[in-house]
Amino acid sequence: MTTTGSDGPAASRPGRRVDARLNRERLVAAARDVFAEAGPQASLNEIARRAGVGPGTLYRHFPNRSTLLAAVLTDRIEALCGQAERLTATAAPDEALARWLHAFLDHARASQAMAGALLTEDQDGAPETTDCHRLILDAAAVVLTRAQRQGSARPDLTADDLVRLTVGVALSTAHRDDEEQPARLLALILDAAHAPPRG
What are phi and psi of 154, to 5 degrees? Predict the structure, then answer.
């Protein structure tokens, strides 16, 4: 006779769900590190090994490379956006704006290859992904609006302006030998953001 009491199959389902969630988190964390080290074409078997799971577990969560790339990008962007909220709560408006833009620039430069690979991957069967651009715009608006309310950021500047300018710095300084140039260009953007509008 089959039982569904406290020792039966139903009792193990929450545990399996927790295990599955933890495995997914470990896979995303391992993929973030391996992709950073070896690029978006890094070995998926190495990612599974770093996460402490078998390849079969990896493919159950991420049936192809594109789904794993999307998960890592989404994880990084959600962390970046959470940083905007924390800075808004703990730092002065000017400091929050500057620190978040530096973090966003680092993210944009580090994520170029991964985003490009995701665009070229076969997307068949890939799940719907988070609207990452909207998340970034919302985070930029959080830090910018607070600085504008204080009067330290020009009122005619938009979150979209800041995001496009920062992405422009990331793209234009890719594969350059001058490692200090991105920070210099971002400093110019911050100077312009703090300047009052002309006229």
Answer: -60, 140
The per-residue pLDDT for 12 is: 54
Rounded Cα distance between 26 and 48, Å, is 9
The string of DSSP letters for 45-106 reads: HHHHHHHTS-HHHHHHH-SSHHHHHHHHHHHHHHHHHHHHHHHHHHS-HHHHHHHHHHHHHH
Higher pLDDT, 107 or 12: 107
Location of structure tokens 């927790």: 18
Q: How many Å apart are CA 17 and CA 21, to the nearest integer? A: 6
Determine which helix (DSSP H) or strand (DSSP E) holds 193, and give its type and residue range.
Answer: helix 181-194
User: What is residue 139's predicted lDDT score, i.e. its pLDDT?
Assistant: 96
Compute CA distances 168 → 173, 185, 194, whole Å.
8, 10, 19
